[in-house]
Write a structure and sequence with these properties.
Blueprint lengths: L16 E14 L2 E13 L4 E9 L2 H14 L2 E2 L11 E5 L2 E7 L6 E2 L2 H10 L4 E7 L3 H13 L4 H8 L3 H6 L1
Length: about 170
């Protein structure tokens, strides 16, 4: 299936909130002792259908987080959110991570764990059932979740693509 190009052009007028997904500390042993570096995975979103992720690496945690936020702002995508949930069921695989997203009725909440929860809440989804299968690596989970959200299509887009009215999408 072809990828849908739904990149956001400008970020000037968008109010973005950032969420830290994970921090990884690495150690390099040198002649002078141990040197620690930090890698931070950050997700930014406006909680209204726009989401982006970034990875920042630095010698300090705060610098790594700020680099991650800047990287996340550079690859924002628009995602269809329909009445607080997703338009349809979606499965996606990235690396060793497999995820399943299902729409849920109002009041269900975000039934997802860890990295997936941060992504889904940042995009503005309030009711969804999500399942992570395979690897629980936060890098791959974030990429798989955003990949699945990017492949979502709202009913209006499907109607335009098929050349039919919106009523025929639902009624067949």
């Amino acid at each position: 299936m072809a990828r849908v190009n739904n990149r956001v052009k400008s970020t000037n007028d968008i109010e973005l909130k950032d969420r830290l997904v994970a921090i990884n500390r690495t150690t390099k042993v040198t002649k002078g002792g141990r040197t620690f570096t930090f890698a931070a995975i950050v997700v930014v979103g406006n909680e209204n259908g726009i989401i982006g992720w970034g990875l920042g690496k630095a010698n300090e945690v705060t610098t790594a987080i700020s680099k991650g936020v800047e990287a996340a702002k550079k690859n924002l995508v628009k995602v269809p959110v329909y009445k607080g949930t997703i338009p349809h069921e979606q499965e996606f695989k990235f690396g060793g991570s497999r995820i399943l997203l299902r729409p849920a009725s109002h009041g269900t909440g975000v039934k997802a764990g860890g990295a997936m929860r941060a992504v889904l809440e940042s995009v503005g989804i309030t009711d969804v059932l999500a399942k992570s299968k395979g690897s629980s690596n936060p890098h791959n989970l974030v990429k798989a979740t955003i990949g699945a959200l990017c492949e979502m299509r709202d009913p209006l887009t499907i109607a335009k693509h098929r050349g039919i009215t919106l009523d025929k999408v639902f009624n067949g």
